[in-house]
Every structure is written in C-alpha cells, then in structure tokens.
Design goal:
The structure is a single chain. The protein has helices at residues 23-32, 45-50, 52-55, 76-86, 103-107, 118-131, 150-160, 183-191, 205-211, 234-237, 242-257, 262-276, 283-292, 296-306; strands at 11-14, 38-39, 43-44, 67-72, 93-98, 136-141, 164-168, 196-199, 217-220. β8, α9 and β9 (217-220) form a beta-alpha-beta unit. The radius of gyration is 19 Å and the shape is globular. Helix content is 43%, strand content 13%. Strands 1, 2, 3, 4, 5, 6, 7, 8 and 9 form a nine-stranded parallel beta sheet that branches. The longest helix is centred in the last third of the chain and has 16 residues, at 242-257. It folds into two domains: 11-234, Aldolase class I (TIM Barrel), CATH 3.20.20; 241-306, Non-ribosomal Peptide Synthetase Peptidyl Carrier Protein, Chain A. The termini are far apart. It is an alpha/beta fold. Bound molecules: flavin mononucleotide (FMN). Flavin mononucleotide is lined by residues 15-20, 41-42, 70, 97, 99-100, 139, 168, 199-202, 220-223.
C-alpha cells in the first residue's frame, strides 16, 4: 500500500500522455495544482538502456513531486535494471504501462498486450519490486475485449507486489471509442484493498469527485490539454481570464524552450495551442497565426496581441 503522507486522498492525477506530459507541461500543472499527482509520458525501458534521446525523458524537477515515472517494455530483466537505476532518482514511484492500445506497442508485446499475458505482466512486476522499495504501480484498461478478467488480473498483480492501480474505463478493443465505463472500476475497488484510481472521459476535477464513489482517486488526461486549470472547482475556473490563459501558454512555451530549440519548440507546442486559445471571437484566426509562427518572437508577439 502507498504510504500515507506520500499524497493525500482522494488523489487527483494528471494522466500520463505521450507527447504531452513532458517536463514543461508537468511544471505548469504543478504551479496551478500543488496536490495533483503527476505522471511522465510512457518511456521505454529498452530506450532508457540504449538511447540518450529517450534518457532525456527521465529528467524531472523536484517541484514535480509527487511524481510517477511511467515505463513500458516486455523484458523483466530490463525492467529490473531500469528500476534499479531509477531507485535513487527521487521519483515518488514507478508506474508500469499495461494499457496502451497502439498497434506498434501491442505488437511488441508491451503496454496493453500485457493484459493478455498475465504471466509476463507478473514477472515484470516481480522484477521491479525485487529491486526497489519505491511503490510500483500499474495503469491498465478494463481488459482486452471486456472487463471479465479485470479483478483476477489486478489481484495477480497485487500478489506480485503492486501498491496502486489506475484503470481507464475502456477495453483494448475500444481504443478511444464509445464512453468510458466506470462500473467495473468500482467493482474492482470492492474486491481489492490497494488504492484504485478511475480514469476516462472526465472533463473536470468536479466531475472526478462526483464520479469517485468508493475509489481512492481520479485521473484526467485529454481535458487537461491546454487547460492546466482543469482540476480547479468550477467557480474558481470561472475567474480565469483570457489574459491568464495567454500568459500561462507563454510560460508553458518558455519552459519547453529551456530544453528544446526554437523550431522544435514551435512545432511541438502546436498541439497545446487549441486548448489555450479558444472560446472568444477571433480565436480561430489567432490560433492559425500562432501555429504558423516560425520564430519565437513572432509567436510571442501574436500571443500578446490577443489581449
Ligand atoms: C495523446 C495521448 C497520449 C497518451 N499517452 C499515454 C501514456 O503515455 N501512458 C498511458 O498510460 N496512457 C496514455 N494515454 C491514455 C491516458 O492516460 C488516459 O488513460 C486516456 O486518455 C483516458 O483518459 P481521458 O479521457 O481523461 O483522456 C494517452 C492518451 C492520449 C490521448
């Protein structure tokens, strides 16, 4: 069980999102939400061993704590070596991805495919728990095609040592289609004693609390993109001005610029713009200009012209 004091419950979590929850965005979310538990983008254990580029994903700031690094792979021995290396990095815990439905990931027998290979999933957890006293946790989905196996799967992972589980209320086969079903997540919580975090389709922290029921926490992903205030209560969110949004967007961009060059930053930042710049007359034209900016000064001048 996660030690009390690591974070308070109910836990609000920023979902791990590849291409989004990098250290720039995590810092922005942290500034506005001191209690929210942050997760890294999923990071390949194989990549950590073999690629300098991938290793850069391991960099984080202590201000990000509580912070889980999420890793994925298919080889228990490599997981063991990676976790041994991360043991003294200062992270709150190690989260293992057992839910990613991407074709490439599943084909490599990693991510979501581990829901179908319980033996390998358990050997991976065992290899991690053997080498660290840090909490080892798992993020998964309801199951491969239905939620029939969810409780048994999680119980097996608990017997092997995981201390918390987050569940996205969709199956592998659903990918992102349909609505997330939280029913099986509530049922899971009734069957296990470790903390269970619910995830899927939440639009706000208020909605997370409303859906909590017997769970220990909730996790928000897509609704946080360009909206790091998503965890705030509605009445507090109502006070956010367009100027606040523009300033926060520029701050976010500057954090990215601290470790990426100008062109890469401008390109990578495009996916965040729509979330920040919307819902006012002329927003579309400003977004288009921001996305076409080829220099940081043009980007900043356009943003400043918004308000
Ligand atoms: C662009 C994108 C990237 C994602 N990357 C990850 C990831 O790296 N690890 C992971 O466990 N889930 C990942 N997910 C899934 C989310 O963590 C979350 O489970 C899912 O989006 C459902 O939550 P939401 O409806 O609040 O977005 C990703 C989702 C999106 C949209």
């Amino acid at each position: 069980m996660i030690k009390t004091g690591t974070f308070s419950t109910p836990v609000a979590c920023l979902a791990p999102m590849d291409g989004y929850t990098d250290r720039a965005y995590r810092r922005i979310v942290r500034q506005l939400n001191p209690q929210v538990v942050l997760y890294s983008e999923f990071t390949s254990v194989h990549g950590i061993e073999h690629s300098e580029q991938v290793r850069k994903r391991l960099i984080f700031d202590r201000s990000e704590l509580p912070y889980f690094i999420q890793i994925f792979g298919n080889d228990p021995a490599v997981f063991g070596r990676t976790v041994q290396e991360l043991q003294d990095s200062g992270v709150t815990g190690i989260d293992i991805n057992m839910g990613c439905p991407s074709k490439k990931i599943v084909k490599a027998n990693t991510g979501g495919s581990l829901m179908k290979d319980r033996d390998l999933a358990c050997r991976i957890v065992e290899a991690c728990c053997k080498v660290t006293a840090l909490p080892v946790t798992v993020k998964t989905r309801l199951g491969w095609s239905d939620a029939e196996q969810l409780i048994d799967f999680v119980k097996a992972l608990i017997d092997t040592g995981i201390q918390m589980i987050s569940v996205h209320g969709r199956t592998y086969q659903q990918k992102f289609k349909g609505e997330a079903d939280w029913g099986p997540i509530y049922e899971l919580k009734r069957a296990v004693s470790i903390p269970v975090i619910g995830n899927g389709d939440l639009k706000s922290g208020d909605e997370g609390l409303a859906r909590l029921k017997n769970l220990d926490g909730y996790m928000i992903g897509r609704a946080s993109i360009g909206n790091p205030w998503v965890f705030w209560p509605a009445e507090k969110q109502a006070e956010i001005t367009l100027k606040d949004k523009v300033e926060k967007m520029l701050e976010h961009f500057q954090l990215l610029r601290q470790y990426k060059d100008e062109t890469i930053s401008l390109i990578e930042f495009r996916k965040h713009i729509t979330g920040y710049i919307n819902d006012f007359p002329g927003a579309k034209a400003f977004r288009s200009l921001l996305m076409k900016s080829t220099t940081e000064s043009a980007f900043t001048a356009t943003a400043r012209a918004i308000c």
